[in-house]
Every structure is written in structure tokens, then in C-alpha cells.
């Protein structure tokens, strides 16, 4: 039986298609053939970068050492093409590029894609330190292989390091898409603009939040529910937050932050400090200082 088109659908579509009715218009360039941002492509970028850095761990099949170089070459070519397309799309979305020729954006995207791929060996070296630190610090970890294959903290950290490299290359939007995909998958929210040193560990991880201007040193371990956030915002004349001002904590080397602690503002947690669980911290913590729940109200320390 033939279905009848709902009354008024043409009128609704007319309103939805009307540029005059759109407050937020996708920044396309009609007729130029520019790419659009794709969540599927961005997820595939993370998958391919992960597979290239850790062959066999993120593949559905493994064809053996005799063909691994050929397979990796094909995957690298695919990664390069996806990067160029999605970086170009991100650049098209940036208002600063409205008057830039699409050919120039593609050329810049190609340079960024090449620089990203060239950084994969160094990125893997840093991730190796994260894997080793996670394995050595967790008595439940059977092997480093288990960390790579199973641990959400490592998955989120790997996505962050991929996103952060693109962020440092000046790529807009795509890095945030990468970390938000990881956020959806793991419950761990790391802004790609954060700065994180080597041997980083997120244990369990659910509910972890790390803000855009946070700086984290080497050999830092944080547990589930930890927030490295902003205490307050500088506002403009319209009472809107001013963008780009450092507002998140600086965490020193060899720091441990236990579960559900909230650290706010541009404060410094000194080297070798320990922050106990369920604390609210809004002032500097000295190197080697230990904050514990029993003394949290008056911020006295136990050394």
C-alpha cells in the first residue's frame, strides 16, 4: 500500500533548508569539493595510528612477519589520505581560513599529515613508558600486553597523545574529536591541549577529567574520578569566559593523586607530592607534601 506523504513536510523542509533560519551554518564552500568532518574517518585515523605503532594489538587478523611491512605500508598510505582529508576539513571549519584558497589548505594539511606520520616512532617510545609504568604500578596487571589490549587508561592516553600531536601541529577540531571519541569509549576526558609527560598512568580511569591548560610532569599516576579543573574564569565585558588563559593545575614529577580528588585552578602540586582520595584542593602543595582526608579541612599536611 502506497504511503501518503505527511501534510506540511515540504514546509518543514523549506524551513530547515533556509539559511535565514539557521543560526549555526556548516562552513562549506559550495562547488569547491571541500571535505567535511567525519566521525568515522577520525575514528579510523586513531585505529590506523594505533595499529602502526603496535602491530597485532588492534588488528582483526595478523598475517605474519613475512608480510607485515607490506600491510603497514598500505595502512600508512590510508592513514595519510584520511589525515589530509580530515585536516583539510578542520581547516575549512576554522573562521581564520575563510579567505584562504582550498588548494592552500590542502597543501598545509598535507604538510601536517606528513609531520604527524613522521612522529609515530617517537610517539610509540613515549607510549612505551606509559605501558611500562602502568604494568609496574598495578599488581593486577599480568603483562604489558594486557595493558595494551585491555586497559582503558592506556587507550585514553594513546588517543590523547595522537590528538595532542595534531593539536601541536595547529590542526583545529580534529584533535578534540579524537579525545571525545575516547571519552565516550572509556569515560576519561583529556583535552588535547593538555601537556603530559612520560610514564603517565591512569588507573581504572572512569570519571577522570584533565583540562585544556593542565601541565602534568613525568611519572604521574592518577586514579578514577580525579579532576584537574579550573577554579574560576576571567570574563569579558559580556560576562563570558576569556579564552586561552592558563587556568588548570600544574602537576610536578612523581605525583600520585588518589580517587575522586578535585584539584582546581592554576596551582602547583610539587614533585613527589601525594594527594589522598576525596579531597578538594585549591592551593599549592609543596614538594613531598602528603594531603590526607583526616586533615583536609584545615589543609594540614602529613609528611
Describe this structure in words.
The chain is built from eight helices and 14 strands. It has helices spanning 9-17, 39-53, 68-93, 102-118, 120-137, 144-150, 152-168, 174-186; strands spanning 189-190, 195-196, 201-203, 209-210, 215-216, 221-223, 227-229, 250-251, 256-257, 262-264, 268-269, 274-275, 280-281, 290-291. Helix 5 packs antiparallel against helix 7 and helix 7 runs antiparallel to helix 8 (174-186).
Question: Short summary of the structure?
Answer:
The protein has 303 residues and is an alpha/beta fold.
* Helix coverage percent: 40-55%
Regions with little confidence, pLDDT below 50 for 5+ residues: none
- What is the total tally of β strands? 14
* Number of alpha- plus pi-helical segments: 8
Strand residue content = 5-15%
CA-CA gap between termini: 80 Å
Structural class: alpha/beta
Write the layout of secondary structure elements.
Blueprint (H helix, E strand, L loop, with lengths): L8 H9 L21 H15 L14 H26 L8 H17 L1 H18 L6 H7 L1 H17 L5 H13 L2 E2 L4 E2 L4 E3 L5 E2 L4 E2 L4 E3 L3 E3 L20 E2 L4 E2 L4 E3 L3 E2 L4 E2 L4 E2 L8 E2 L12
Parallel strand pairs: 1-4, 2-5, 3-6, 4-7, 5-8, 6-9, 7-10, 8-11, 9-12, 10-13, 12-14
Amino acid at each position: 500500500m502506497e504511503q501518503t506523504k505527511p501534510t506540511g513536510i515540504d514546509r518543514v523542509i523549506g524551513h530547515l533548508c533556509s539559511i535565514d533560519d539557521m543560526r549555526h551554518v556548516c562552513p562549506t564552500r559550495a562547488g569547491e569539493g571541500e571535505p567535511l568532518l567525519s566521525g568515522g574517518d577520525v575514528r579510523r585515523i586513531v585505529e590506523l595510528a594505533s595499529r602502526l605503532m603496535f602491530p597485532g594489538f588492534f588488528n582483526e587478523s595478523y598475517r605474519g612477519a613475512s608480510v607485515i611491512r607490506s600491510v603497514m605500508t598500505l595502512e600508512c598510505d590510508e592513514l595519510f589520505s584520511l589525515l589530509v582529508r580530515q585536516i583539510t576539513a578542520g581547516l575549512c571549519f576554522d573562521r581564520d581560513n575563510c579567505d584562504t584558497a582550498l588548494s592552500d589548505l590542502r597543501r598545509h594539511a598535507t604538510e601536517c599529515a606528513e609531520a604527524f606520520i613522521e612522529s609515530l616512532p617517537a610517539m610509540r617510545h613515549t607510549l612505551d613508558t606509559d605501558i611500562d609504568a602502568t604494568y609496574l604500578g598495578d599488581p593486577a596487571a599480568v603483562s604489558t600486553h594486557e595493558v595494551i589490549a585491555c586497559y582503558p587508561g592506556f587507550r585514553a592516553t594513546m588517543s590523547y597523545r595522537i590528538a595532542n600531536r595534531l593539536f601541536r601541529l595547529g590542526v583545529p577540531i580534529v584533535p578534540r574529536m579524537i579525545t571525545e571519541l575516547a571519552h565516550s569509549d572509556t569515560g576519561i576526558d583529556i583535552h588535547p591541549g593538555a601537556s603530559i609527560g612520560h610514564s603517565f598512568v591512569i588507573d581504572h580511569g572512569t570519571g577522570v577529567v584533565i583540562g585544556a591548560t593542565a601541565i602534568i610532569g613525568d611519572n604521574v599516576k592518577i586514579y578514577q574520578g580525579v579532576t584537574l579543573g579550573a577554579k574560576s574564569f576571567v570574563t569579558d565585558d559580556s560576562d563570558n569566559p576569556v579564552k586561552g588563559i592558563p587556568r588548570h593545575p600544574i602537576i610536578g614529577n612523581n605525583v600520585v593523586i588518589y580517587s575522586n580528588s578535585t584539584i582546581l585552578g592554576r596551582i602547583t602540586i610539587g614533585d613527589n607530592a601525594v594527594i589522598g582520595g576525596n579531597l578538594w584542593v585549591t592551593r599549592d602543595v609543596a614538594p613531598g607534601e602528603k594531603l590526607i582526608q583526616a586533615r583536609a579541612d584545615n589543609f594540614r599536611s602529613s609528611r
